[in-house]
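During the no-cost extension, the postdoctoral fellow (Dr. R.K.) reprocessed legacy sequence entries with the updated structure-token encoder. One reprocessed record is reproduced below for audit purposes.
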Amino acid sequence: MEDESAKEDLEALEDVDEKGEADNVGDTGEAGEEGEETDTPTGEKKSLDLILDIPLTVTVELGRNKMLINDLLQLGQGSVIELKKLVGEPLEVLVNQKLVARGETVVVNEKFGVRLTDIVSPMERVKSLT
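Re-encoded structure tokens follow.
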């Protein structure tokens, strides 16, 4: 077991060039898989493995409305909360409370789903982060 670890460490050192930069860190040899690398404008290679396992909260928003506390306290079983969104309007798909897409309701194996109809452009997504 220790011999295998030492062998892997030695192979990793062989992949480092004369400037001390790794040549193929995280490279799986096939594009589109885990370990895929991207070239930044400076030529540095960044491994996507660092971010692929970060958990995110995905929310599909049907609609919104504002209520007074008094109205909220009077809600009971069978009460209906009217939403501002009209029937047929696209649902909003939020990731960590940021809009990333819009879509329509579908039923998949007796469960609700969302068919994405519009993806927010990457530039708009980046702007929403600030």
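The chain has two domains: 1-52, 55-130. The first strand starts at residue 37 and ends at 39. The remaining legacy entries will be reprocessed before the final report is submitted.
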